[in-house]
Amino acid sequence: MARRHGSWTGGRLTARSLLNPKQAATAVFHPAWIPPSVDPSIDQLKRFRVIAGAVASLGVYTFLEGGFSVTELLENALTASVVLLFITPLSVGAMLFVWRRTGTVGQLRGPLFNALKLLLLFVGCVAGLVVLVNMINASANPAVIMIGGLTMLWMIGFVVWGAIRVSGNFFGTAAVHRCLPALLATVTSWLMAIPDLVTGDLHGLSLTLGIVFILGAPVTVTAIALLEMGRLRRRYGIRLKAHPATLPPLPGHIPPPHGHFPPAAPPYVPPQGNPYAPPYPPAGAGHPYTPGAGNPYAPPPQPPYTPHPGGNPYSPGPSGS
Q1: Whether residue 70 has pLDDT greater than 60
Q2: Which residues of 19-32 are buried (b: 16+ CB within 10 A; e: fewer)?
Q3: How far does Cα 11 stand from its chain's mean position?
Q4: Which residues, listed in sequence order, are joined to residue 308 by a DSSP beta bridge?
């Protein structure tokens, strides 16, 4: 799969967009080299997968156990980021081992390095946010608290929206293989839930609620991921075990310009026939501007001024006068 040309952000990251953490996170964590989706229905499945993945990463028991805590939320996010830092390369490496039979790793070097850089960038942003929050909590300087508080609010929006973006594209691994994001989401959600099951840590919930909330998210993510990969296989012939270089070409997809959808047919094609013909033909036959019978500019049969009976009225009379 060839790497898309252009810069990382594709020109979307401007000085004005930096004021909006949502726009900045979209430009940074959904780079221009990530290929567009091939099917709107798969995009909808990814949204459900992102929601279930967020439940698996952060845990609904954070809200049920003792109320919402920003510190605990950030600690869970940092833990999930560290897990991703190790699990994602291992999972991709396992797939490279499977693909080696039909292709080489060198064919995927560009997309692999891009995905690794995006993963490191996200983990670094989460770690930076945790350090900033701890620094503000430990400081008694009003200036540090004020400036750091504003920066922390911007960083929280930036990281939260960035987490949504990388959960959808899973660090741009779709540029390596279209099925990788669904596979990595499944593996990550189960690895986040298994430690709680092994240790029996239900976070203060009863046995029934603990099992439901711990297993509910990974089971949901797995079901959605299998459905997503199934649609890719049936509709486009994309199989997880096949090396990306051996996959069939995807149908051409040219996104329309922003805010404009071209019509299905040219809107200014003139009607068949003469485009300048009058819309309302005359009732009678013939040309509408044909004059009546005869030449309208010919003199009448009889001159309007009959000459004198004797001929020229100005000629001399018989007497010569």
Answers
A1: yes
A2: eebebbbbbbbbbe
A3: 15
A4: 311
